[in-house]
Design goal:
The chain has 28 helices and no strands. The chain has 523 residues and is mainly alpha-helical. Helix 14 packs across helix 27, helix 16 runs antiparallel to helix 18 and helix 22 runs antiparallel to helix 23. The longest helix has 29 residues. It is globular and about 75 Å long. The N terminus is likely disordered.
Length: 523
Amino acid sequence: MSTRLLSSPVWARAPLVLGFLMPSPLLASEGGEIASTTDPVSQAIVAVVLALLFVMLAREAAHRVLIAMVSAAFLWVMTYLTPWRLIGFEASARALDLNVLLLLAGMMTIVGVLKSTGAFGWAVGHMLERTRGHPLAAARLVVWFTGVMSAFLDNVTTVIFVTPMASGMAKRMGLAPVAILLPMVVASNIGGTATLIGDPPNIMIGSGAPLSFMAFMENLTAPILIMMVALQRYLGRYYQAEYTAAKAPEDGVHAHGELANPALLRWMVAICAGVLVGFLTHSMTGMAAAVPAVVGAAAALIVQDWLYLKEHRPTAHERTHGILDVLEKDIEWPTLSFFVFLFIVVGAAVETGLIASIATGMGRAISTVSTTLGLSDAGTLIFAALLICWMSAILSAFIDNIPYVAVSIPLIHQLAPTLPGDTEVLWWALSLGACLGGNATVVGASANVTTVGLAEKEGVRISFLQYAKFAAPIATLTVVISSLFLVGFVLLGGKAIHLVTWPTAIALVGYDYLKGRRILKNA
């Protein structure tokens, strides 16, 4: 009987059955990296894990760090104890974006030192004076300030600086903090789309296309300005009740916060300027954004310690543990941990080929629709651009846009030669979709997660659904505006579309400025 069993087809498939109970010889080998399986079942498992992760986040079934950690742990269990090798430890390490993690940690440290100078309270006082304590005017000022800053700094760095100021303004006015924080983070993602250095996907696209800094400015800045004006209109309507209920501070708009340490602030201004130079000279030095951020953080901690020692005789405890006050309290470790586990889960989608399969399906859809509908050359290119834009936006709302863009760049390189016309529009479609789609959910962009984490430290809780309820509609509107721009780019040409977008943007910004003046005049 045993002979018949051993020769039966069931036992011929025994490795698949026993694979659930013991690792395969390849998994048990020492020194060899595990290659992820790319079969449909592996991709389906990762897709289900991703879907469940976001469902759990939306329902707030547990803390977001625990949800992401359990998801990563499950992928590892499947990898090492079943035949479906989703992502090994070595691939998990590669999936971690060290640049993002160190950039966040470095900038959080710099902000922590800045907070000790009293600079944020002082800035809040001046911004309130500028807006005369009017809640809607204050929110509008924060939105424009954040959007412009995000175009020239990366948007994560911008929200790290602006979030404490925005929270302070809300508290002074008795305004619900979300009425400033959510428009602020949406503005950071919109503004960051305008330039090559504003959002990490743009840096990748600029290098892979290749496209210059000025190319981004010429083509994307005007549509982004239009979107910023649309955001101003939207927030005024969405939070109308909150702005009406709030009021000017009882201590007056002229009550500026005092600078606790002017000497340290002067040093911090110089250090921050050096960090900014490091960001802007990336193309010349080749430094990742994390490098100047960490260098600046180290310099800030050294200067803070040096100035303290000049005026105080520290105790032994202070000399041993003084620096830990900033590192422990001002670095948002739960946020960094969430990023670590989220990178691993998204890395599994990349390693198993799930993201590549989605991107490849886009190419097939373009060819099929063009052939079936008999589209003209311009129609085919418009369909391709819109498909890339909307698909990028939808995916970027639920997964990190960096790995998606990394996969999409070679896809567009392969797709572009098969399409007629100026295929540069495909790169703008990828940039607009990937950057703006991240606005729709908390986990869609690094700036979103960072802001929610920083707000939580201030005692402000922003839920997954609360964020999506405000941000998803404006994210959809910005992608619609992007679609109109892409259609115009194809029909009118890359240069002619500027004759439409730039005058429109300038007129709308002027209108928004006059509206802001009227709000203050009627305050």
